Each structure stands twice: as C-alpha cells, then as structure tokens.
Queue: 2 jobs
Job 1
Amino acid sequence: MTGNQFVRRLTAVLVVVWGAATVVFIVLRVVPGSAVDQISGLYGTAEQRVETRRQLGLDHSIFYQYWLYLKGALRFDFGRSFYSGRPVTDILVDTMPVTIELAIAAGLIMLTWGILAGSTAAVFRNTKVDVGLRGLAAVFFSIPWFFSGVLLLILFTSVWKVLPGFGRLPPTMTYEPTTHFVLLDAVIQGRPELVWPWLSHILLPAAAIGLTTGGYIARITRASFLEVTSQDYIRTARSKGMTRRQLFRVHVSRNAALPIVAVAGLQVGALLGGAVVAEVVFSYPGVGKLMVDAINRRDYPVVQGAAFVVAMCYVLVNVATESSYPWLDPRLRR
Amino acid sequence: MLSTHESTVPPILEMVDVARHFTSRDRTAPVRAVDGVSLAVHQGETVGLIGESGSGKSTLARMMLRLETLNEGRVIFDGRDISNLRQRELRPLRKEMQMVFQDPFGSLNPRKRIGAILGDVFRVHQDAVDLDNRVGELLDLVGLSASFATRYPFELSGGQRQRVGIARAVALRPRLVVADEPVSALDVSVQAQVLNLLTALQRDLGLTYVIVAHDLGVMRHVADRIAVMYLGKIVEFAETEALLASPRHPYTEALLSAVPVPDPTARRRTRRIVLSGEVPSPSAPPSGCRFRTRCVHATEECASVEPLLRPFGSGHYAACHHPVLEHPSEDR
Amino acid sequence: MTIEPVLSVEGLNVWFDGDVSPAHVVRDVSFEVRPGEILAIVGESGCGKSVTAMTLLGLTRSSNARFSGTVRFGEHELLSLSEPELRAVRGAGISMVFQDPLTSLNPVMTVGAQIEEMLRLHLPISRSTARRRAVEMLETVGIADADRRARQFPHEFSGGMRQRAMIAMAMSCNPPVLIADEPTTALDVTIQAQILELITSLAHDRGSAVILITHDLGVVAETADVVAVMYAGEIVELATRDDLFSAPQHPYTWGLLASIPRVDQPRTDRLPSIEGQPPSPSAVLSGCGFRDRCAFAFEACAAHPLLEERSSNRHLDRCQLPVSGREEQRRAIYP
C-alpha cells in the first residue's frame, strides 16, 4: 500500500469512528429518560438531583461534555460507569473478548456451512440437491436472529436438555482471566477443564447467528463457483489433463475465493449486530448485552465507550478485508 | 491539411491537432491515446483509419463525433467548431453525424424489439410521424424484411444485427457516418454482404464515411484514403492505391507484409518483414519516433527527433526520417 | 514409403441434445494427420470445427452429448477411453492452445507455475526441475528475460507474449499432436505473423503434428500443409494446400475465396458474397447441406453427397457437380 493510500485509509477510519461516536452521543441525550432519573430515582429531592448531575458530569454544557468524550476516547478513557463506578475501560476489557470469541465462533460456523452448502449446490447444479440447499439457505437467511436464538434455546435446553442456556461458563466454575480469552487462558493457566464447558455455552449463540448469515454466504459461494467453472482457464486446465479434484483445489478455489472473502469480510458487521441479539437471548456476557443493559440504565459512559470500540473494530475489520484483496488477486496489485 | 482535394468546398470534418489523454491515479504519466492528430475528411469520400491495438484509432473515431472529449485541439464539423459545445447543443448535430459500432451483440438493447430500437431514433429527434412505415422502409434499405421489426436482437444473426446497427445510423440521413470496426466480428461471407451494403448506401444516400479497421483487405475495398496510426499518431496518410503500391513508412510496409493472403504463391514473391518485439505501452511511448524500437532502419536521429509528416507526392504523407523509397516491382 | 498418421479420425459424429431436437454438430468427419504436418480446419462460425477439436480431447463429454465414430491415436481409441486414461493423453499426447490467451490462463497463478503444473502432471520430476524447464520453455518460445517473466502473472504479459506462454505450456511435454484453436484471432496482425511462425517452427523441430483451427484462409495459405474445409458440420473439401488454392472443387470454397476482400487485389464494385446463411446445427439436412445457397445446385444434390476423390489424387470433395464443368463454374464465382 502506498503512503498516499495509507493516509486516505486512515482518514476514512477516523472519520467513520468519529461519526459513529457522535451519533451515539447525540442519540443518548435525545432519547427520553435521563441518567439522573435512573440513579436518583423518581423520588429523589431536587438537591439530590442537582448533586447527581454534578457528580455525573452532566452539569457541563453539552459541547464540553462532547469535547471531554472525544478527548478521552483518543486515550481509550471513557470515564466511569454511572451505575457501578468502575472505569469503563476495565468493563470493556472484560466484555469485548467475550463478544470477539462469539463473533469468531459464529464466523466459523457461517463460513463452514455457507461454503460447504454453496459449493455442493454448485457441483450438483440444477438437481434436487441444489434446489434443496438453495431453499434452505434462503430460509435460514430470512430468519431473524431473535427467532433463531429463541428457537435454538427452546430446542436444545428445554426440549432436549443437552446444552446450557445462559452464561459463558457454568456459574459454579471459577475463572480468573489473564488474557480474557478462555481458550488462550486454558492453555496458559493449564486448565483444560475450561474448554468443554466454554464450548457448550458458546455453541448455541454462535449457531443462532452463524447459521442464518451463512445462508447468504452459501448463495455467494454458489454463484462464484458457477462463474469460475465456466471460465476459459478452467477449460485450459482440463485440457492439460487435471482431475476434477486438482482443478478444484488449484484453479477453482483460488479464483472463487475472491468474492467470498469480500462478502465474508463485510458480513462481520452483521455478526457484530447479531451478537447483540444472541447475547441478550442467551444472557451471554459480551459487549452487546453490556450495551443493552447500559442503555436501559442510561449509563452514558458505558454506552459511549462500547459504541466507540465496536465501531472501531468494525472499521478495522473492513480495512483488513479490503487490504487483503491485492494479496488474493494479483491483478489489483500496484 | 492532409488532403488531396484541390476543391474549394471545405471539408465536412476537420480534426486539428487533437489529443486525448487518460490519466490514472496510480500512474504518474498519462496515457496519450491520441497525441496530436490532424485530418480532413471531404464530402462523399471514405477515409480509413488503420492500426493495431494501442494505435488510438477507435479513440480518434469517437472524438470525431464528440463521443470522447478533446483534451487538446479542435473538431470542425461542416465549418463549425464543435470542440467545446455542450451535449445539449450537440444533440441537433447528431442527426448529421452517426456511428456504427463494432459489436453487433452489445450495441442493441436486448430488451427491445428491432422496430422499437429503430423507432427510437426518430422519436429522439422529434420526428415521430408515420413510424411503422418509415421503420419498414429503413429495414428494406438495409436488406431486411419488414418482419424483422417485431423480433428481438437475440433472434438475429450477427450479420443481421449489424444491418440493424447500420439502419439505425442512417435513419435520419446523416452526412457523416463513422464506423468502428463494422465487420470485424462477422464471418467472412457475411462480412462481404455488409461491406456491399455500406458501399451501396454510400452511393445511394451520398454519405461520407470514416471507417476504422485493422484488416487491410477490408480497407482496400472500402477506403479512398487511408491513415495509418501507431501509438496515437498518424505515421502515414495517402490514397489507398498509392499507400499499398508504395508505402513510405516502415510500419506500413511491415503491416502490409504481415497480412496473410489466401494465395500460397503470393508469399514466395514478396518478402516478409517480421517486426521485432511488441507495441510499447501507450503510457510510456519511445522518445523521438515511436516506432523506432521495432524498426530495422532506426538510427540515433530517430531517438532524439520526432519525425513530422512530410509530403511524398500528391496527398501522400509519411512521418519518417528514413522513409522507404524503393519498392521492388510486384503485382499488387 | 508413407509415414503412419499419428492421429486418424473416422466417421466422427457429435450430437448435443437440445430443448427441441438434438443438434448434429459434427457430421461424419474423417481426416488424419502425420508427424510434422500442419492440417488446417477452416470454416465459419458454427461449422463444427471447434467442437471437433475439443472432442478429440474428450472436452465435450457431458450428459447431453453423444458420439460415434473412431479417433485413433497410437494404440488408443480416444472416444472409448475412460476419463483417467484420457487425462493421461491430454497435455502429454495431445495438447491444445486456445483462442484468447487472456481468459485462457488462470489470472491468479504465475505463468511459470502454470507451465510447471503441466510438466508435473505428466512427468515424474521435482518442483525445481519443473521450474527450470518452465523457464527454458519460455525462452524457447522467444520470451526475453524468461526467469523474471515466469514469476509474473498473465495480466502483466502483452497479448502476443501470453499466446507464446500458452504455446510453451502446450508444447512443454512434447506432445505428438498440438491443436491450435484460432490461436491468432485475438492478436494484432503483426504479432499474428510471429505466432504462426513460432507454431510452425516448433512443430517442424519437434516433429509434432499440428491441427490448426481457423476461419482465415490467408492464415491457411501461409501455414498449412493440408486443408479441410468445413461447412454445417461436414468436411466439404480436403486437399493439400497447394491443390486447394490452385484448383478448389467445392462451390462453398469458391464462395469463401471470392468473398474475401484482398489486400493484394484491386477494389471491385461489389464484393462477391454467398447469399443466405448457414443452416442451424439442429436442422436436419436433406441432401447436400450447401444446396440452398449454391448457384449450381441441380437434381443430384437432393441426395446426400459423400466425401470422395473426384477431381484428382488425394483431393476429396463433397460435391456432385461433374468435374469437367467445374473449372468454368469456379471462374464464374472466383476468377
């Protein structure tokens, strides 16, 4: 990437994040119900309310509040929670990794099922298998996450009592985070017994999002495969005497991957959004649930901080995806 | 300039020192697709633009009709400078100058019937009276029966589609028709039919043609004068017979000798000139004479001084420091 | 002493099942090629020449294609080979160069890697040997700076260079037969000459037979040793190049030759052309396929003519016009 392009990319990142942060800031203060009411309660005296306002820093002018917010954001300091008093940064350190784990797990499910379904449909084009898979993908993709989440919840925790229905780990299990990522900590702390419970807890929420977004990946995969296999260079490769498997592995997959990667990268945004819903349904302690609770409580610093960080993650993932294109497709280099 | 006509009638089209650059963000040097071309086309004649890929001939053809912007130079149509006219002002002029495109598949709207496609031409120019009859007449003019009006492009063969493209171009009886590779996408036997149609229409409707092609055989058959282009410049310009009998520019000579002729005995009579290397990139043309990197006669002068078009007898111009002066006698 | 043909096709028929009726795309095609010989199959679009070529390599096999006839290559009968057996022949026995080198090469693989792939598919050599040989092949086909070029991608090559690379790839295993399907159609005419010269010299040097598919009779005149003219799925004339051009026998050949605008002949008022259009592949032919467009059709043409020697030795045609009158008829169309 040239210096010029890098500067442009960086500017774009900053602009988007700033935009998201500003929108959140404004919406929080426009929405009815104030933080003061939440904390002082409906029966607080007038003096108490004034004092609360001062303590929360809400007595400053709105522009000053905005300025403080942005200044702090640059240092990743978003103040303290109105509710618990804990520094927002600490809260985020606890909760972001949870959502990241969930997004990665959902992403793996999305890609695995999407690519398998899409490529199978392409190979068996126009047969019942193809029609069936396409229908399935369309149905899955149309299901809203709260529906898929609740459905899975009922099926697997109530009807067939095989999986747990809430939390990240069993409530009886102790977990002292080092990296805040369970799998890594299981290795570092030497606690293999963490792995299976963690897996059984993350499976349902990840599936709730991954299966539905995977439907879209399946369609893109199918289309991409069909397009690639009709290309002239595949005919050339066949004329060289390659087996179907070799053709697939060497020629088809590398070329079909390009649009799939592009779409998958953009789907991360959907994953993050889906994570919010899944976390609420499954009481999974990630940033999504954190934000929902904080919004209900009008806990401004937490909402602002979480929104900022999530926006940044989304933008960075997009930048990373776009940066991978020249690497995947040599025609885009230089 | 570049004209063999001694008449006092002004040319129907004049290109004066026109240039077209394409800039791209990544590259520092712009691609000069057409780089200083001057040309005059007279009423009733057919001028051919020939060249290989990167020569700029298609770009030049589009510039003639203002379908491409001019970065430099002027286009003068019928005495009027149209270089800077806005699209709105150009619209009435479109009745006078039309284009036939290369791709008979891509240039017709696949969702419209032939009758509608042709009818649109009349409608756009506020001439929509008695459409059915006129569309029928138009189809007849290009050798298609009236039944074609209700068909869709995909139902037609390549040759038939190209006839429709020609019908569309001549519908409003323009004075100038620019045809960009009108027969390149067609089979040989169909090519002949379309070429015959073009020459017949020129005779019957008094058209002036500019034809872009890469096939010298086609050129010989239709063009009165030929401009040979290389990397954005005209390297030779002459009446067809003069160009073919005694080409002055080494590139023209090489082009001529490279054309495979359907006669095995012909090759034994002429010697083949095989050019070394490939066409240089249009974004970095060689200094001085652009052809020098592939030219057997190139000298130091060719690298430092760009040759200008010089006359070689009536209306024959070539841009070369070491032009070909002798031609072994052959039947041509 | 006659040399044995390296490939011989007899009575090849190809049908593609269509929505309405099957299309008889290749009708009873027979020809042979000898080592070092260049056979040109010439015809216009839809005549079945490309399908014939691809069928030799089994590339047209699919659920809706049917075949009959024999294709003898060495001890093999290609039409009846299984897919794995056919794969061994592709590239090593018969290899192919396609029309558009830009789309016919994988855009995300280096050129060198694609040539290496061909080598390693058929020869038991190591990666480094394959890499070396790939670079050597690029040099052989006249690409300068071959080592650096092998590590580049197809879009970094010019059109002519890409075609050279395709030829390098096709010839890398020294196949006895090379099929070139319109190898120069997408190229500039000055490059065309270079590529044709490359193909012919490679073939001569290595004793490979070349089947050259083209629509350009000029290319045929310059390059071919033997010519087969195809029309509506059939071979209508088959002769040595010199015989074909000096004494063409079939009215379609006359029409084709006459309708080419020649750079070496002065302009005429009207270019002769063959009226009408070729029949669609799904049409059922009754009698001679060219009958409807032929100026000389007569009663005998209602019977389907066979491809036979009628005029001179080793010059076959599929026309029932009496040989004695042909010269005069030909001059009426192609002076």
Job 2
Amino acid sequence: MSLKVASRFALREMRGGLGGFRVFLACLALGVAAIAAVGTVRSGIQAGLEKEGAALLGGDAEVEFTYRFAREDELDWLASISEIISKTVDFRSMVVVDRDGITERGLTQIRAVDDAYPLIGRVSLAPDIPISDALSDRGGVMERVLADRLGLVAGDSFNLGEQTFTLRAILDRYPDNASGGFGLGPRTIVKTVDLDGSGLLAEGTLFSTNYRLDLPQDANLDALEAEADTRFRNTGLRWRDSRRGAGGTASFVDRIGAFLILMGLSGLAVGGVGVSAAVRSYLAGKTSVIATFKTLGASRNTIFLTYFLQIGGLTLIGVTLGLIIGGGLPLMLAPVIQSQLPIPADFAFSVAPLAEAALYGVLAALIFTLWPLARAEQIRPATLFRDALGSSNRLPALRYLIITALLVATLLGAAVWFSDTAFLTLWTAGGIAGALLILVFAAFLARITARALGKRARGWPTLRLALNAIGARGGETTSVVLSLGLGLAVLSAVGQIDGNLRASFADELPDVAPSYFFVDIQPDQIDGFRERLATDPNVRKVETAPMLRGIITMINDQPAEEFAKGHWVVHGDRGVTYAATLDDPSELTAGTWWAADYTGPPLISFAAEEASEIGLSLGDTLTINILGRDITATIANFRNVKWENAGIGFVMTMNPSALAGAPHSWISTVYATPESEAGILRDLANKYPNITAIRIRDAIDQVISLVGGIAAATRYAALATLVTGFLVLIGAAAAGERSRTYEAAVLKVLGASRRSILWSFTLRAALLGFAAGVVALAAGILGGWAVTTYVMEGDYRVIWANALLIIGGGVLASLIAGLTFAIRPLAAKPARILRARE
Amino acid sequence: MSNSVLSLSHASLSLDGNAGKVDILHDISLDVAQGETLGLVGPSGSGKSSLLMLMGGLEQVTSGKIHALGQTLSTMNEDQLARFRSEHMGVVFQSFHLIPTMTALENVATPLEIAGVRDAFSRASAELDAVGLGARKDHYPNQMSGGEQQRVALARASAPRPKILLADEPTGNLDAANGAAIMDLLFDLRDKHGATLIMVTHATDLAARCDRIVTLDDGRIA
C-alpha cells in the first residue's frame, strides 16, 4: 500500500523537473563513466592479449633457458611434442658503427633467430620486405630509434662483436614483443648462424634461449606443461604457452587496471559528497511538503519511499549516462587508443566492466543518499515552517546505520572480488577512507580557526564576513575541503612519490653510481680489462666479479618456492659469484668467511636482509641449479649487501672451488669522471668487441620513463577525481548562491560597495581553496613520506614545485567556482531580495 | 520645504514581473522634514514598502526624482547609493535581515566598520547595551528570539547615527508585547538621536504615534 502511494507521490513530486539535480547526475555519471572507461579499456587489452596470445609468444608454446641451450634430452622431448621448433637467442650487445674514422656505439637487445622465425605472426619492416630476405647474407633489422641514433639507413653496415652486418630494413613491429619484459636497448634481429665468429654468445655470456613450438592442433597444453614440469623440474627449463602469451604484460595490465579502477572509486567517493549535498539541498526545500504530507496522515515509511523512489530513479539515470559515456568513449576512440598502445587491444562492447561500474555507481549512490533520506522521515508536522531538516543533527534510525554499513561492506567486497587483490583494494579503500576522515577533521578545524580569526578581524568587515562564512555551520567549508581535497591529495601524493623517485634516480644515484656497467667480459679478457683501467687517473674505482646465474631450487631439501613463500630471491634465476676473500670484513653480520684456499664441500655466503626475510639460518643448505647442474651448498655466513648505489651486489657468493669448471664471464662496474667516460668506452670496446657496456645514466633514464608512465596513468585517474570534485564544488557554490545573494543585499543596505562585497567573496573562495590545498598537501606529503621511507627505503624530501601547484590549484578551482556564482549576488537588487524574504 | 531632508518629485516605479511590466508607484511627490516622523499606511499591495525602498535608494525610480540631504539619489549608481546609506541612513526590516554567520555584536559593528569607524566594536557594544541586549552580544541570530533579533536590527540601524531612519513594518513579525517594546525603542532612539523616521506600518495605533501619516492606495498618495 505504502509503495503504491509513495510511487504516486514520487511521480507528482518530480513534476518540478530535474533542474536541481544537475550536479547529482553529473557527479554520478562522471564517477561511473571513469570506472566504466578504465574497465572497458582493460577488457579490450585483455581480449587483445588473449586473442593474440600465440603471436605474442611467437609460437603455441615456448621453453626458455638462461645462459644455455637446450640439452639433447630436452631437444628430443621438444621435437617429440611439436611439429616445428624455432630457436631464438636473446642477449644485450653493442651495435658499433664506423663512419669517417668516428666510431659510434649503441646498446641493443639482440634477438638471434633461425630460418623458422617467426613461427606465428608476421614481422613488419620498412621497406616492406620479408624477414627472410632482410636477414639473408648477414643482413639485420633494427628499431628506428636505434638506427636514427646511429645515423644508419638501409644498406649501411654495422658491427656486432667482431662480425659485420648490413642493415636491410627498419623493424616496425614483430610478433613476440610483448612477452620479453623490460629491455634496456632497442631491438636488433639477426640470424644466429651469422653470429659465429662474432665473439658473442661464448660460454658464460649472459643470454637466454627460447624454443618456440608449433604444436599439433589437438595438443593438450595443460598436459604438456605438467609433463615439462615432471620431466625437467629444477633444470632451469621454463614453460609458457599461448594461454598466457603476454606473460608479465597481462598481469601488469590487470594490476594497473585494478589500481586505476580503485582510483576511480575515489572519484565516486568525491562524487558521493556532491550527490549527498544535492539530496540534502533538495530535501531541505521539501521540508514544508514533507511536514504537510505528515499532517495529512502519511507514515514515515511512505515519506521515505516517496523520496527514495525519486532518488532511485535519478540514480538509474545517472548510472546509465555514465555507462553510455564510459562504455562508448573507448569504442569511439578505439583506433586512437590502439595506435598508442604497444600491445594489441580488441575493443568491443563488454558487459562485465559496465556491470562492475554500474554496481559501484548504485552502491555509492545508496551509501551517500540513505542518510539524508532517513533524516527526511524525522521531520515532524509541528515543524512545518521551521528549517527542521537543516538544523537536525540527530543520527538516522539504527536500521539505516546498519544498512549503510552493509552497503559499504558490499562495495568493498565487490571491489575485492572484481580486482582480485584484497591487499591492493583494502589498502586503497583504507587510504580513501583515511583521507576522507582527515579531510572532514580538517574542514572542522578550518571552521573553528576561521571563527576564531573572524572574531579578531575587527575593522576588516570584508575579511570578517569571509571568515565567518567559512566558520559557519552548514556552510560550504566541508563540501569544498572534501570535494577538492581528495583529488588534490591523490595528485599531491603521486607528485611527491614520483618526484622523490625521480630525484633518487636522477639526482642522487649518479653521484654514487658507477659510470658504466660492463658485462660478458671473458675470463681471458679480465686481466687486460683491469690493466687498462688501473693506469687511468680518471678512474676512481673498478669493481669486478665473476658472474653466473642460478636458480635456488631447494632449501633444506624442501622446494625453495614453498620454503621461501614466493620471496623474489627464489623466483627465477639470480646472479651468483665466487670469491676467495671478503673485501670488507665489516660487512659480515653472522658466521665466518672461508679460508682463501678452501676446497671442501660447497659453502655459500647469503645477503643478510634477504636471508632474514626468507627465514634462513647458518648451516641451512641451498640447492642451486647453475647451467643445468645442481650444486648443494651450506650457508657459512651472512653479509650486508648495498643495493641502493647500483654497484655490484650478489645475493649469493660461493667459495671458488664450488664453481670451478663452470663456464662464466665477468662483470665490472667502473667509476670514472664524466669527461673520461667516452675514452674508456672507446678503448675497451675496440679491444674487446664482444663486451657490452651499459651506461648507467641511460638505464636510469629508462627506469624514470617507465615510472613516469605509471605516474602519468595515476595522475589521469586522480584528475578524474579532481574533475568530479570540481563538479561538487560547482554544486556547493551554486547551492550557496542564495545565501551569498542575501548577504550581498544586506551588506548593500548597510552601505557596502560591490567592490568590497566581491573582495569578501574572493577572500572566502581563496581561503577555502587554500585550506583544501594545504590539507591535500599535508595528506600528500604524509603519503609520499610513508611510501618513500618504508616502501622505497629512501630519504624523503618535500617536492616544493608540486606542493605549490597543489595549493595554487586548490585556490584557483575554488576561486573559479566561487566567483562564477558571485556574479548574480553582486548584481541583485537588494530591495527585491530582502522583500522576497519578508 | 526649506528644511526638507527627503524629497520625491513625480516619482514612479515599474517592475518587470513574470506577467510583464507592473506599475507599482505612480507620480509620487512628497517632502519629509528634518526630525519629522512619518507613517506610511495603506492596504496590502498599495506600494508602501516600495516607496520606502525608493527613499532608501534600494530601488531606482522609473521616472521622477528623489533628493535626500541635498543629493539626487535618482542619478546615483549602486555603489554611490551604498555610500550614501552608510553615511546617512539606517534601515529596519520586518524580517530583521541580520547576517546569520555573525554574532549580534558583529552585526551591529558591520555598518560602522564599512563606514571606517575606528571604535566600531565599542560603539556597537554600547548600542546593544542601549537596547537591553548586553548579555547577548556573542549570540548568533538563530540563537535569539524574534524580538531580540529586531532589537539587534534596531541597534545596527541606529549605530552609525543616521540622519534618516527607515523602518519597514518593524513589528510585523512580532507578537503584541514585543511589537510594543520595539516601537518604544524605535521612538526612543529617534528622540535620542534626532533622526528623521519614516515608517511603514499596518497598525493604525503605531501610525498614530507619528507626526504625519501618508496613506497610499494603488500606488498613489490617497
């Protein structure tokens, strides 16, 4: 009965139109649109990665080895399960170009291939020639960025090690480029057989081999993966297949997508403030109507339902608008987005991301409107012509509090379920909730401070009016600080973290980091290498170490992954070295170093911090697979390893005899004056063409660019929150226009000029924006400090340029919103305004 | 009149309403002498309040002229009118029109501060003592009764010692006892400071306390 009556009342009430709900609809639509858009883009990328899985992998399946080729038994098994095998070798090297007596060098990531390459997909070259033609007769192709840097065009020669190649074409796209992970140099493709005699790919060189398999149509990938694991467990053979062709890229897209959607939720939280304010304002205008309904006998339930149905209808409109915008924009812009992505994407209408966005939108709207709706039913008929709603501070009935708590729990549960990461979701949700609480408290403090200052601003009526307006209960302060603050706080935190990260990489690291990192120095070259540097007065320090790679397979006879619970040290292969003595005995934290001539059972020295994280003790045994051979060693000691200065650091160091006979190369770090760097590189590269030099500053730039990309994506998400916040701000300013008009009218009666009234409004908006900016900055600095100190373990410093931008942005946004809605109050005729209030 | 402080000459007022242009006042000519108390009476909609608003420079005449204290209000812009009110006029409304975000003391001090008075707060404080609200100075409008709010409004209007005091049905929102008290206070203040008082009222007994009564009917002086 109640619902029927309420529906009729609701329809009649909505005859007034939706004019007062523009901000409500905009906030909800924008929040939902942002989430739907991120979800649709993520879904498109996932679909593209799945569809192109085999092409991305370069085959139906692939096995990978580090620093070795497949053994006979492994090759036999691969041949037995596949129809065609294509072998590629991946490693870093230097492209060297001699031109008019000047030698130029560029770091490159080489993919050495066979005739079967690519098994699946197509290599796109400019000019458009087949890859087989491009690679014939010692031909090669490379990415444009490298060719341009070295001034190479098709037909020019370049050297790899001691072998000369001809550049035949520019490499535009190649199929297996999304699974390789982070590479330090642009790609060059040559044939493996052409590298014979180059001096590259010697034993102990740092390289990986990939065997791409063309499997029969009916191949069972699950069964083959299981068989590979059973047959070749702990030999260093890694299996991947087209189901996860994009490898780390797919999980990276998943994670960044989940994070951006959670950031979108912060936009919805800010939008919720606007939604709640719009409903409160609407219901405040309905006080007399509600009181009249009650006078005429309407029950509390009928009143609640009457307005709940109206808000529910508007919510559906807002959510639908958001879904149309958020789901439609990525589809409309699909060609543009696809051209900007380095990975394939297949954009199509997808229900799942839209359903997720709709669910969040509906839940957020319910959470933020239930409270004011519940208060509406508390209006008593006796308060017919009093502002009962505005002055009521009573909590809503218990049932509404419980329902609100349940809705919040449902929202969190949905976010955890959709993002598939409780850790990230709960931390982000905690961060948003914490930031909102801080902002509410800050708004309260701002009000108290403004009131106290207002009492002292005697003789400054415009300032006092501004301060009193900020300090007034039920004014705009909370709305402004909340709506602007959250978006600015996220932007501020991202700016502080990004700035500190850049500073530590770009400013501080080069001061302590080496100039060059040399790899693939062969054992017969290391003495000459050291000799060249020892006599150079510009070289401050040289570190050298033998380098092998190994996978920890067992710890105390237990599978390492199980024992270490997935710690990064046991995940994949790690560098291993050997040493007879320890250069700095003070680095030893426990145990003793072996004698320089020790030849007994293998002993190992382990990095102290990582050992403590894994739970290792002195005397524990580790089984390490090095180049397919298992070596079991006992932990003899722990030592401190400094990772932060980019010098040579190994988690594991063994006694020399333990690794005797294992083929290996040497690595070296060289600390030299910047002006001598070029000469050192020239001398060493000319003498040892197989050696690869990595300029640390180039590597740092690449890391900075990667971090910059993630920071930019986060900034865009934060900007969506800020735009929503600005909408809320506009809503708050629009809602405050009536009271500003009234104030202006009274002040004009008392003799105030329009200029002084405008000045007062300006001060009010600027001070509110400043307060929101300061609070956001404080929250951002707190977040930045916590992440820099505890996650990055670095020294935090405030990034002032970002800080000033945040405060300036707050002031500007508040001024735009506030002053836009100051025009009518200033122009209004006082007589009409005041008479209307009589 | 040689000692006229306020003079209206053929003043008319038309306003744009939803249904088109509405003529509110027609050809009003009126002189108010210095120190005089003038009651404006008439039925609802006769234009009493509109006439008072014209006198206060809160509305601009559509035609005709208004002179006050030797200056022509009808040719002043909005800010010049505001300055004129600040220096010479006090206005009291039926609905008090206190600024809700300010305490009683701050409300009373505001016109003094706008006028640049140095001891605005001590004068405002004395003014509130004079209207019997010495104990309510730090209260906000919503913490006071209607009668108290109107006393604050009276104090605010009289604090700058205006030469002309305009009152628009100052007791219209008050009960009989409070209304009588406010009227006593209004006339006391007027007597004490010698201002010219022009008051709109429905109540004939209140109008009877004025030196002269002008009756309006349908926007004309009857």
